[in-house]
Amino acid sequence: MQPFSYQKIGQVDNAVALVTPEVEAAYLAGGTSLIDLMKLNVQTPSELVDINPLPLTKIEMQGNGVRIGAMARNSDVAYHALIQERYPVLSEALLSGASPQLRNMATVGGNLLQRTRCYYFRDPAFPCNKRVPGSGCPAIDGYNRIHAIFGGSDRCIATHPSDMAVAMIALDAVVQTRGPKGERSIPLVDFHLLPGDTPETETILQHGELIVGVDLPGSTFAKRSHYLKVRDRASYAFAMTSVAAALDIQNGIIRSARIALGGVGTKPWRAYEAEKALLNQPANQATFQAAAIAAIAKAKPQKYNGFKVELTKRTIVKALATVGGMA
Question: Could you tell me where the beta strands, DSSP code E, fall in the chain?
């Protein structure tokens, strides 16, 4: 780990003002991802600004939706009555991630910004375009079992690791930020960037811009939702594939649908094709199968992860069948 300076800040504007002019400065929240990467010398900030004292931990009604403060801990969100009642897919996604100890520390804002678990990214002995732009992507010709089948480029095929972000995209979440140019509201579906030619740029945040909260709008489908995660072991493992599914079913007909995928995309992946296949169709097995086929139609598997195509299709069908059977 490289040497760094440390400051603790209790006001949002002061934190932004401190980090913005320092190119190598970084915010420290739960630290469950950043500290690991610092130990590996993958990230080497010269200054850490501890934002744990910021008053951004509330989970409360706002209009007909819910606002979650960026410093709310994952455990608190997962077990909050408003979330469990109105957005069960989010509670399930959070409880499927990490371990209880990590969930007790990890924050909502930090969860959205966590970095990929690609082994090549996390090992400085290998080249990686995310760490050193232009150095290459050994995953493309290497062992790529855990890598993306959606959204990759010839520069990067690393998956985004967050379960929470997948559920939030299915809920049409909006990220609230404050930065050097003021406040912004960013639809979460637009927050993460595809790697393209610049995989080192992972979100649309400016340097110093701070996530202050996430808004979950009220909807006709959020209550009828489910998160299904498939992984190598039953706990404390990242998704091989996952599905956040939400349906508004009226008289047996699907009137609104949201499908998002995890473990298979270079960003949390919204399956628009699957949603179109579900709209105004009967909520039955044939419809769910058609939606799953539509979802995987544009998949581009690599040498070692072709199994993810069929696995994702089956996971979509099972998640939709679960949601379709909810009272």
Answer: 5-8, 25-28, 47-50, 59-62, 65-69, 174-179, 182-187, 210-216, 225-230, 241-250, 253-262, 269-270
d(CA 327, CA 323): 9
Which pLDDT belongs to residue 102?
96
- Residue 130: phi and psi, rounded to 5, are -70, -35
Copy the structure tokens of residue 242: 């996952």
Q: Is 58 within 8 Å of 70 (Cβ atoms)? A: no
Give the pLDDT means over successive 10-residue stretches in the chain (327 positions). 95 98 97 97 98 98 97 98 98 96 97 98 98 98 98 98 98 98 98 98 98 97 98 93 98 98 98 98 98 98 98 98 91
Evaluate whether 98 touches 67 at the Cβ level (below 8 Å): no
Q: Which residues contact 199 (CB under 8 A, 6 or more apart)?
A: 129, 130, 133, 137, 153, 155, 156, 158, 266
Q: Is the Cβ–Cβ distance between 193 and 204 less than 8 Å?
A: yes
CB atoms within 10 A of CB 108: 28
- How buried is residue 196: exposed, middle or buried, by Cβ count under 10 Å (0-12/13-18/19+)? middle
Q: 297: burial class by Cβ within 10 Å (0-12, 13-18, 19+)?
A: exposed
Query: Rounded to whole angstroms, what are the CA distances from 64 to 43, 56, 82, 86, 248?
Result: 40, 20, 12, 11, 17
Helix/strand/coil for 34: helix
**In this structure, are residues 108 and 164 in contact, taking their beta carbons and an 8 Å threshold?**
yes
- Amino acid present at 78: A
CB atoms within 10 A of CB 1: 11
Burial 160-177 (b: 16+ CB within 10 A, else e): bbbbbbbbbbbbbbbbbb
CB 89 within 8 A of CB 167: yes
**CA 96, CA 99: separation in Å to the nearest integer?**
8
- Return the pLDDT at 327: 64
Q: So what's the pLDDT on residue 235?
A: 86
